[in-house]
Amino acid sequence: MKLKDLATVIRSKNASPFVTTLDVFFAQRENYEAVKASGVLTKELLAELYKLPVESVLGIWFVDDCQGIKMSILKHVPSDHPSAGDLYGAQQNAPLLEIEVPS
Amino acid sequence: MLRKKELRIFSATSFMGHGVDKESLERAMDYDLDFVIAQGTTTDAGPYYLGAAKPVMAEEALRRDLELIITIAKANGVPFIISAGGCGADSTTRLVLDLIEDICSQHSLSLKLGVVWSEIAKDYLLSGLKQGKRARRIVPHPALEENLSAESVLQAERIVAQVGPEVIMDLWEQNPDLDGVIAGRSLDVGLYAAIPLLHGFDKGLAMHFGKVMEDGALAATPGSGNDGLLGIIREDHFDVRPTNPKRRCTPESVTGHAFYERSDPNREANPGGDLDISQAVYTQLDEVTVRVSGARWIEAPAYTVKLEGAAKTGYRSICIAGMRDPQVVANVELILEESRDIVEDYFSYLAEDSYALNFKVYGKDAVLGPFEPTPYVQGHEICVLIDVVAETQKLADSVCSFASSTISHHGFPGRLSTAGNIAIPFSPGRAVPVGEVYEFSIWHAWPLDDPKEPFRTTIETIAAKGGRAQ
Question: How many CB pairs under 8 A join A and B?
């Protein structure tokens, strides 16, 4: 299954002009647990998807209380840089959608 | 120190200018409120507002929210704390006071306000740096210098610092008869934590209270950016619930909100320490109320406030260029590459960094750039945004206009549309002047012995007949 088929929210936003934060929420507990247990979400995977060095992945957190996963990455360039194209960082989620979650 | 055992606070909206729900605010007044609080400063909209000293929200929306909060709070004898104006430049704080003055004369109200000004004088920072103060960058991004330099201070167009809760606590303690406080750029959480801290509540609890309350009904379900949230804080817990019967708080809605626009959901750096909510407990108390406890405050070795500074990087000119002809679409990369060479050659007499030319190809990779997983055109129509930032508006317009005409008339193998490669949607079109461009050049933590030191506070009295005095 792909992440987009398991999650109900896959979103991105700035956490400062220098950091993109990616949130994934699940309506079904078992989907959240499945993604968490699969171990597919790693710093290495995020680095590959967003073409970043692994050190630029600031963290991945699983929060059981709200069945949510948060991932934060440094931006290639700050959101106010002339070559940047997403001031609020609200459309940086697409690379996550097709992640294949092993069952 | 004041010692209330329970405080009832209403968070009126997610942001001043996003809208206040009048009925929710009026219903909140039935709860014997101690305070109404709302935040309205941000860096989300980018550095332009701080650089240009302009408010982030439309003036009319800001005025309406101020009017609802101030008239309803005043009529019920409830004091308010509001940060507003967006970027925190002193001119935006003055604008907020002008709007309040206008509201007061419209409604025949008189007010005594405490005002916190958040713009920071360069001389203050320069002399601090000279005395050996070290302000480290807050985010480890290579675009920021590791330690704040005097050059960056001098080059910045404007610098603000985030007002911490201590400033508001002191203002209130010294002036308990205030109708309200108006603050410039503020630590959002601090606005809501200030009064609980003044009454001696636990710091971890008070800061967590602020964190849940700061965006109003965004912590409820269904969430809303223009509705409020009621919070009741007691010795070892706080309860939150919306006053709008259409909404409720659930553990998911409250914890989910802790995710919003933050990099770490468990721990957050604040002035003077970190808020750790990894052990927090959220319980559904009744249909609509969630009880929260268990946050911890981890004291930092030093107190710091966050400095935000914007520097001018130039002036922008843009051209929106549509492409529909299949041959043009198929050759877009070649056309842009060769056009760039022609532009660079034409303007080669200019210093290298006097302008920056960027092409964004919508329909290909404009949004994700270097990590677009499908970096090729799939549709029949695309848009090229020609974006030029240059030393002067005139130069930006010149480069943009030249780039636009070059792209339009550039030849390539198989070209059919020989009268022009692009569709420009309106006039002016080849070069639309956008104005000044800024960047956040300062995003650093400034160490302080006294959290109040850099902030100027004033007491303003606004008369019902209009006019105000300090």
Answer: 120
